Amino acid sequence: MSKVKKIILTAILTLAALFISSMPSKVFGVGFVNNPSWLGLYAHGSDSVWITYQNYLAADNMYCVQHGQRMTSGGMGYKTVAVLKIDGKTMTGNYAYNGTTPSITPFSSNDVAILGYICRLGGNQAQQAIWSFFPGWYNANRYRIGMGRNTDFALNGGTPDQATANRVLAAARAYANSLSDSGTSANAGITDNTNVESVKNNIEPYEIGDSKYVKIGPFNWTYGGTLTNITVEDQNGSAISNVLFATYNGTTLQQVSISGIKSGKDFYVLVPSTVGVSEISRITGRTEVTRSVVTLILMDSLNSGAHMQNMIVSFPETDTDTVDTPFDYHIPLIGNIRIIKVNKYNHEFPLEGVGFYIQNTDTGKWVKQDGDSISYVDSRDQATEFVTDANGEIEVDDLIVGNYEAFESKNPNYGYEMPTDGMPLEIEAGTTTDNVLENRQIYVKLSGYVWIDIPSGKQTVDDELYTQNIDYRVDGIPVRLVDSSGNVVTKEDGTPFETTTTEITDEILKDPDPTRGDDRTVGAFLFEDVPLKDDADNPLGDYHIEFDYNGLVYTNVTPMIDGDPKSGYSSKAAEFQNTTGNIEGRYNFNVKLNRVESDGPGSTTGTAGGTKFTYEKGEGDNSYKQFVLTPDYAVDGQSGLSPTAHYEPRTNTIDGQKQAIAYDYDGDGNRIEGIREETKITASTDAAGYYLNDVFTWGDEIVRHNNLGLYKREQPDMSLIKDINSVAVTYRGYNHIYQYAKRFEHPQGQEPEGYEVGVKYGSEYGTTQFSQPIYEADYEEAIKEGEPDQMCAYITYAIGLRNQSTDLTVQINSIIDYFDEAYSDAEIVVGDQLDDKSIAIDAGWEPTTGEAEGGYRKLTIPCNIQIEPQQETKIYVQFKLNAEQVKQIIEKGDDGSVESDLLYNVAEIGSYSTLQNGVDYAGIDVDSNPGNAIVNGDVDENNRPMSNNDYYYEDDTDIAPGFRLKKAEPRVANGVAFVEDIVSPADGVDTTGLMTGYERRGNGHLEDSEEKLPGVKVELIEANDDGTLVKDENGNDKIAQLLNPDTDQWEDATATTDDNGLYSFTGYVPGKYIIKFTWGDTEHKVQYYKSTAYIYTSQYDNTRYNANYSGDRKYYWYQQAEENDRYSDAIDDGAQRAVIDKQMLHLTYDQQTAIDNYTVGNGETITVGGNTEVIIDKMDSYTLLMDMGIEHKDQQEYNSVTSNEVSDNEEDKAGLYKAFNIDFGIVERPKQALELDKRVAGMKVTLANGQVLVDVTVDENGNLDGSSANLIYLAPGQLPYQGLLRLELDNELIQGALVEVTYEITATNISETDYVFAADGGVTGNEHYYFGVETGDLVTLNPTTVIDYLDSDWAYESDRNKGWTILTTDSLDDFFAANTGTEGSIHGIDGSVSGLGNDSTNGTSGTINRYTVLYSTEFNADLVPGKNTGKIDSENGSVSHQLYANKTLTTTDEIELDNQVEVVEVNKPGGSGLDETPGNSDPSGDFTSDTKEPDNDKAETVIVTPNTGANLNFILPISVAAVALIILGTGVVLIRKKVLRS
Hints:
Structural class: mainly beta
Radius of gyration: 73 Å
Largest sheet: 11 strands, antiparallel
């Protein structure tokens, strides 16, 4: 054998040996483990057993201990490593891992019991639980079971079916918890969960078929194992036989056996009622419990190659424990009953005195009570009658639990039904059971009363509650109880429940609550045995109570139900508003009696809806007759004003109650009993929302206070007053309203007193008369032009209708108006509105006119006007008269053509209706009968149309004041023309002279001291609406026409102011006018005067003009003129002013003198721009447009009103039209003036040897500057007037000396401030001219041409005098033609210079006589005046130019040289003429302050004269000595300072 083979063989043999050695000693087939003998055979570790996989699958009691470990299919050898026994919670062992005698110490735990429970189950569920539970248990307990070293016996491999495992484990834990803590035996006891007190409170009878039991429970026990028996013991400790048990299946109690009582579930004990058990003392329960005993063999795999699956084999056994558990309950089975006897539908109402007998229906025995002892007898006669106390209760104690009935034996309470059957009672063990037994109430009583509510004290309205000592209780009012069909409810015997209020003293009517009042005594009613329905919510069904009374006079007070429906002081009934069934509602009632008609003049009756009422005359407190309805001796015993239904006072029967009895009147005023059918109305509790069911409470014996409160319905009270409202006069589009209607005026919140009878017919208004002036010119002009309708008078009567009612609306259906037949031809319009012209607007009522007596006609007006309470309204009856009718009525008067006779007018209410809150209301005026006035021509002492029987003149009737038409005084317009004083612009300024730099103006106000202007032509001119003047057929201003009151002839409206400046127009008609003032005279030339400022006093602006021209005073500004506050009201025509000023734009001597010297009216001319024009010598000044209405105070075209009252102001009086104080003033215009100033500005004297002896300048103040040796200067104003310069020279120096003088000539505007008048002449742009406003372009002066008269002794050098030209006699005409545009003159001498003569010897040499005449245009500049500052304009107000002259001295005689200058031509843009005359100066004349004008001047006279001979040689030595002394003094000072000090 080879070595290899040997090796292989050896390996095979070794493996075989190992296999053989590993084989178990014995091998068993399937099912071996179920053999109990196996425990004895293989309980030792020295033996082993072979177990196949098929063995494992077939054995329910074999388990692998870890999921996922392997087991070979052919089987494996296992050895026992431990044998354990589990008994309940305790584990013991008889074999250990080391195979020795077991050393396991017994131990107990819930986990042991859990393991035992699992292993007892067997099968898959046990296997899943083993995989989940055992590994953990083993690892926790392996040391306890002697397997501490075997750590991998049971590894946790997871659980495939954890849900099954969890379910098994839950059951196992429950099992473990059911075992005793010792764990050696099962817990067989019972735990009691019963609420014993609840059981005691829930004992009640129970029936099973015919058998009666007492149900006791619920009991609740928790136990382990099986409940096998329950023993119930009575009060003596004896077991009660025939006890049953029950449980609830849902809500159904079902009898069960003991096995049906589940642990932890409620069950009940049913004790037979017949056994007489009074207490359940004890209940004992018996339970049996089976506990688990399991032997476990732990088998360890013998496979040494790899860890294989280990096994547990279980051998389960069982053991049983029996336990009796007693519970002492002591549950009583007797109880008490309380019977409570109540009203069936009101358990709060106990029934006292009701008797009962009580029977145990289980035994048939009756209850008898002796003291506190209860016994049971066989008959009712032997039993006790139990009676309810004041609370309606009976209490019986210690009755054995069972079924009882109570039988009612008596019931003393009113109105209850007596039951005949027994009433079941309930008894609860151990407590008192209330048994409420009901009795049905079948009758009730009803009561109430009727009262009339009376206001008291300061109370003006009813309080709507009954008040003793004030309100009246009333008998005789029908009352009935009716159902919903209107049928009277009857008693069982057929007697109806109906009665009348009367006196009832039954105490039952007295409310036990004194605060609720008392139904007893007069005015009460009582219904007894009123049947009640067997209906908890509707005991009185639809019953209600009705009352009848006079609905015209009375109505129900407001029912008060919500607050306290059982109050004894409130009303519970009301009228139906609409007819309900057979009950007429208030609405239908009111409709039926709503309209009250007249039965004709003089009647004493009236009719409402076919029902007649009678009126009687009553005597009022005043001195006039008051008309009332039939006196009502009513609730207060005093006379009233109601037409029917009266209540007489009667004797009191109860203190503190006023009582009365009702009666009524028929249509003829006869007393009747009961209620008049035509005026009956019904009040119902149903209508008030007061339902008997609501106030009835089950148990009430009586329902009191079903009262009716009435109060007197307010009756309408209408009053009428009539007055002349207005007279509207129209004339060609103008309207004026003359307002009357004083009777309608009254203080705020007060009723007009004119509505009272005593006032309207008394002395104040009863004798009032009015006269209406009408301007004769107005109607005469309309008639003259054949247009009578262009002037009309609308005479409007106002009929005031006042509703004096407090809460009622009245409707005046018709008014009867009696008017004077003088209005017969008038157009009549009736309406309730006037337009803004006081013309009546036709309301469309279609009044009808008929005949009346005594010179009157009758107008019936179907107006249908509604008037709210305490309100008034008016309607208007208007008579329209045209011009011819007005004139006819005036001229028919007794006073000839001055005024008419008095015209009267009477009005009365003819029919009326009443409403409240917009619906019809039945009512009759308290003090007037419509349409009964008599107007037949009779008059009273005041000549008014009054019937001799004034009975028929009530407050619904009135007479307007007497009225007449008369001629008015003619219209007047007047005023004054005056000359304004100049207002001083500053203190100390003389306004009579030139006020340089200030304005010259007036204050626009007429002062008494001012000069009046006579001779002014004044015309009243017709104007158009736009203010332009109307032109006549010749194109001239159309002058208005005046009706001369003295001649009745028409004249032009033209006047001339008198010496006092006054003018006046009288007799014009309404229209638009302008007053034209034409003025201008020698003293007041239009070039120098203007219309004064159109302003308020010294208020220099256009405020007044704007207000009058376009503001709130437009057209009517003239009405503002007052006697003591008067202004100028006209302004100059601008176009004329522009022409006048244009004639003065270029002024020379000729133009200025023409203006200054013309005579007004001569038509003198002036040259303007080369053309000859007539000098304007008149100015037309115009007022603004005046719209002169019918009366002076008319404020606008319409709605102008004049009161009819006499006024202290004449302007306010009707028919006294005076347009006073339309004044016009003129004022001097600002003065225009130029001033020339000529002075020596410099002087130089050069000697013949060239030495300058004098070289000096002179300023404007006369100060010299420069070399002025031997020169003396005297300023102007001294002698001579023009001033001088005097030079003295030695004789030897004069010859050949040259004297040179420079003159400065200055032209200055020294005018007063003025502004250019704009050429278009309008107000805009000329505010300064018309209003004094500082605006516009200033008036400047341009000294266009200046002439200088140079002394001919002066030499003139043209090359040194630029701008100056020599003027010769031959060139004068050419000069004027070239420089002034006209042939002019200087000083008026054509072609010559005044004062120079025509004897010129050198007409071409430049000299004229002794003067060289020069002219210059270099001063051509617009010089500006000072602007109201009082000063010259320093910048633009002047212009200067120089003139040079010289002379070579040739003689030793004194030489005197002069030079004079003058303005000869002035241009300006506007303003007045000059205050000086250009070119009028005479240079040869004396030059003094008297002869000098501002526009010319003379320079200082230059005089050169030989020396007087005085020795002047001392001057040089003195000068030398003075210089030497100065030098010497200076040296001394220097020596002291410099030399000696050092």
